[in-house]
From TrEMBL:
<protein>
    <recommendedName>
        <fullName>VWFA domain-containing protein</fullName>
    </recommendedName>
</protein>
<dbReference type="InterPro" id="IPR036465">
    <property type="entry name" value="vWFA_dom_sf"/>
</dbReference>
<feature type="region of interest" description="Disordered">
    <location>
        <begin position="1"/>
        <end position="41"/>
    </location>
</feature>
<feature type="compositionally biased region" description="Low complexity">
    <location>
        <begin position="30"/>
        <end position="39"/>
    </location>
</feature>
<dbReference type="InterPro" id="IPR051266">
    <property type="entry name" value="CLCR"/>
</dbReference>
Length: 127
């Protein structure tokens, strides 16, 4: 039975590879290098962004807008395992094209997961 562990606010972080997860992680093994088309030539991390609006006037304001961020890691660095939680809107407004796009996005995420990654899905339904 798991017990709660109280950690002081300024405590040192746990050693690398030690997690207080509900499941132990297996030690990672070396993975084959990716194909050259999916790399950035072995350099540093590359970030690119694309904003929904190329510019906003000084007096203009928006409550929200979309920004697409693409990150490409160096080829010689193994990716750490990911614990991902997806909150999925399954309310009645998610029909037709919205639901199809949600399914497509979740499928893309699943395709990108590695063997050491974990995904949890939480359905959210507005009443």
């Amino acid at each position: 039975m798991p017990t709660d562990t109280k950690v002081p606010l300024l405590a040192a972080p746990p050693p690398v590879g030690v997690y207080q997860d509900d499941e132990p992680l297996e030690p990672r093994t070396a993975k084959p290098a990716r194909a050259p088309a999916a790399t950035n030539g072995g350099g540093g991390m590359v970030l690119s962004m694309q904003c929904e609006f190329p510019a906003l006037g000084r007096g203009a304001s928006r409550d929200a807008f979309a920004v697409l961020v693409h990150a490409r890691a160096p080829v010689d660095v193994a990716r750490a395992p990911v614990d991902l939680v997806a909150v999925l809107d399954v309310s009645s407004c998610m029909r037709g094209r919205k639901l199809a796009l949600l399914k497509q996005a979740v499928g893309f995420v699943v395709d990108q997961l590695g063997p050491d990654d974990r995904l949890s899905a939480v359905p959210l339904q507005w009443r």
